[in-house]
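User: Here's a structure from my thesis project, written as structure tokens. My advisor, Dr. K., wants to see whether a designed sequence matches the one we expressed. Can you design one independently, without my sequence as a hint?
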């Protein structure tokens, strides 16, 4: 039985950790022995840690560890010397986000030959990493594998019955942690535009901050909109909110690949997203969603008539969206 070690910075409630959990779920069914290590115990999310424990065993790499494959999804520079405690046959860096520390970790890891190959979750990230100067002779060692999801599970979870109000107007949802990079200041601008244009709307905000400061900043920012906006906090299953909405809204500064966008498309909910680079791989503007200039949110105002009129057309277009977990899992199995 092959041993796979996932090496994380922390186990938060973000896309990286959710995607790691998804991969664990699928690999555990294929007969792999799964282990995990994470550095940031203080800020990690206990509920998510418990989920990991269903599929993998925690191991402390301060002691010698012997595995077949290690998969890094971390920017924990403080821990980089602990990698010497891991004996392995293959190693991959699973690149989810362009944090400075993560890029530095990747650079050091490649220079020290800790990393055999880089796996990215978008073509945009693949091209950007290939262009980094310290990878110029290893372009073929950067591979793109899209996020792994269970489409049948997503559809079933979206059917969960929960009390949700819909209005005769525009029904929106945002699913994102409370952090500056998720663009909640743009959400506020869009709320103000809807109010100024006398649009009847309901906007559910699903998420929480990793820390008290970040959480409270978003709560304070959206204070005073109680008539139209409902902060429902973190939900282990946010998909009924996405299913109930006319549009999922994600206005991030950047996303390497928006996991919740793919979930929305599987469910059949169109999206309104900011123009982060990978958005163009997931959304065809005017066909299955709208892409709004993150530096000019007022563009949302001029596109409102189209937004209001296009929901059914976009839902119909999304019936043709195809997602194959089987093909993605096959790529992972070939690597491992």
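Assistant: Designed independently from the structure alone:
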């Amino acid at each position: 039985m092959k041993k796979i070690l996932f090496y994380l910075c922390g186990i938060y409630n973000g896309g990286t950790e959710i995607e790691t959990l998804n991969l664990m779920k699928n690999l555990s069914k294929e007969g792999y022995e799964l282990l995990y290590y994470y550095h940031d115990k203080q800020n990690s999310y206990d509920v998510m840690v418990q989920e990991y424990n269903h599929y993998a065993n925690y191991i402390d790499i301060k002691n010698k560890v012997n595995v077949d494959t290690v998969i890094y999804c971390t920017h924990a520079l403080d821990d980089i010397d602990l990698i010497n405690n891991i004996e392995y046959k293959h190693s991959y860096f699973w690149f989810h986000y362009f944090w400075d520390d993560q890029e530095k970790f990747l650079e050091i890891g490649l220079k020290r030959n800790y990393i055999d190959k880089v796996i990215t979750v978008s073509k945009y990230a693949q091209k950007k990493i290939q262009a980094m100067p310290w990878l110029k002779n290893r372009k073929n060692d950067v591979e793109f594998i899209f996020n792994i999801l269970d489409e049948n599970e997503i559809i079933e979870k979206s059917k969960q019955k929960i009390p949700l109000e819909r209005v005769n107007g525009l029904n929106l949802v945002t699913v994102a942690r409370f952090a500056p990079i998720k663009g909640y200041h743009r959400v506020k601008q869009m709320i103000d535009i809807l109010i100024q244009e006398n649009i009847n709307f309901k906007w559910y905000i699903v998420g929480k901050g990793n820390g008290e400061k970040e959480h409270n900043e978003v709560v304070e920012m959206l204070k005073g909109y109680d008539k139209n906006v409902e902060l429902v906090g973190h939900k282990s299953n946010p998909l009924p909110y996405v299913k109930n909405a006319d549009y999922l809204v994600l206005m991030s500064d950047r996303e390497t690949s928006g996991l919740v966008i793919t979930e929305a498309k599987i469910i059949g909910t169109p999206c309104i997203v900011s123009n982060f680079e990978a958005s163009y791989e997931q959304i065809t503007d005017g066909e299955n969603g709208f892409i709004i200039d993150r530096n000019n949110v007022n563009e949302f105002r001029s596109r409102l008539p189209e937004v209001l009129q296009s929901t059914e057309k976009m839902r119909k277009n999304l019936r043709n969206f195809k997602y194959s977990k089987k093909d993605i899992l096959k790529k992972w199995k070939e690597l491992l």
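When you compare it with your expressed construct, this may help: The mean pLDDT is 90.
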